[in-house]
Amino acid sequence: MIEIDIHKRLLSTTGNFNLKVSCTINKGELVSIFGSSGAGKTTILRLIAGLTQQDSGSISVNKTTWFDSTNKINLNPQKRKVGFVFQDYTLFPNMTVKENLEFALNKGQSKDVINELIQTIELTDLQDRKPETLSGGQKQRVALARALVQKPSILLLDEPLSALDGEMRIKLQDYILKVHKKYSLTTFLVSHDISEVFKLSDHVIKLENGSILKQGTPEELFLDKKTTGKYKTIGTILSIQPSDVINIVSILSNNNIIQVIATNEEASNLSEGDKVMITSKAFNPIIQKI
Amino acid sequence: MLDWSPIILTLQLALSTTVILLVISIPLAYWTANTKSRIKPIIEAIVSLPLVLPPTVLGFYLLIAFSPESGIGSFLNDVFGLKLAFSFSGLVIGSIIYSLPFMVQPLQAGFASLPSSLSEASFVLGKSKYQTITKVLIPNIKKSILTGIVLTFAHTVGEFGVVLMIGGNIPNQTKVVSIAIYDEVESLNYSTAHVYSGILLAVTFAILLLVYINNNRSNKFSR
Prior knowledge:
The structure holds 2 protein chains of 2 kinds.
Chain A: E1 2-12, E2 15-25, E3 30-34, H1 41-49, E4 56-61, E5 64-68, E6 73-74, E7 82-85, H2 97-103, H3 112-120, H4 136-148, E8 154-158, H5 166-182, E9 186-191, H6 194-200, E10 203-208, E11 211-216, H7 218-222, E12 231-243, E13 246-253, E14 256-263, H8 264-268, E15 275-281, E16 284-289
Parallel strand pairs in A: 3-9, 3-10, 7-8, 8-9
Antiparallel strand pairs in A: 1-2, 1-4, 4-5, 5-6, 10-11, 12-13, 12-15, 13-14, 15-16
Helix pairs in contact in A: 2-4, 4-5
Chain B: H1 5-34, H2 40-52, H3 55-66, H4 71-80, H5 88-113, H6 116-124, H7 129-137, H8 142-157, H9 161-167, H10 177-186, H11 190-222
Helix pairs in contact in B: 1-5, 1-8, 1-10, 2-5, 3-9, 5-8, 5-9, 6-7, 8-11, 10-11
């Protein structure tokens, strides 16, 4: 159980605002922090990691207090057992991939974990390369592996996929889900991509101007009603083409283009570029705006 | 026959100054690059002072401080048996102060050029400040360190005013090449002055040439 009660005054380009967030997260959940840029998403991760200091409040993780302003407790980043994947990867340029992972080892920790991670995240071919020779997706995988070396209980991911293109994104989402389950982590993911949040998270915190606007499961947050589809996927509308009395809606989802038929009434709600959810009950797919 | 001792003395002075300054400057430069302290501008101003102050002013104050009649001078003499005025150790200390900005400024720029997330990533991995500086930051500012070393070395070789003020002109102790040249010209020994000057010119040019060759090569790599 992770209990967070954060209060910090933030300076931003659009003026000052207060970041005021309190929530309780169950162990093993994948939590997305969702919101537009400048809402304070990254700051929450930095406060959990101890890289930025909050004005007041408390953070406790599995009954250990990491920060408590009333009792003046403030563990430094070294003592908070978190894995942090930064938005710009921050691999150490002077070390190879393997050396980056080895640097992360605790004193006296066995090197077995490194080989295991290299296997899990498929870095075998990259292990002797320097970060500057890697692509964005490869760097991100190394950063993910490095964050897991010390077997943290909490994994913090700061927009890990925002710089990657479609296919790479999906692959990395799968890696994140894989390690999240394999190492029974509690993961915080900062994102402003609905489809990513939908695919990955158990719990979503929607942030606006520093406070929680809404929180709950992705379905609760992004869909008006609970749907009971047998199959569902998220996508973006590429085009809506009228054809006789109906419309053919082309939707890009996980790199596949799906064509779905919609009535004029249904199509009037939709426009190109909308994020939608496609649910299929038996054999009629339904498109729903999210 | 040419007297080589001024040249050897100069190289000894430049080498010891560079080594000691490197050790002092790394923590100092790290601090100035990262601190938000209010006294930072004061420290920066003190470090940069030798850039603008006439060497004779610095040398004069040091001479006063080192003299056995002064508080500092008599303290050093009584407690450590150190006689700094007109001695080689005095020259080293003078050179360290005089060349301080030439080492600190490139290092500070190097530290400041690294993204702060690099140290943060290391801290989150449980590494101390010391481990972060030695294993992550220093290996990534090698170029700045080389620049600092070369500038300090070359600057110390070319020193004149400070050395003359606190060291005088004692053969084998404080008579470095720049002083020797001045001395030879004063005594109208132009041929010896020519040889010393030529050696100094060649050595400093060679050092700078090596640095620029190295800089261009590493630039090509990073592209």
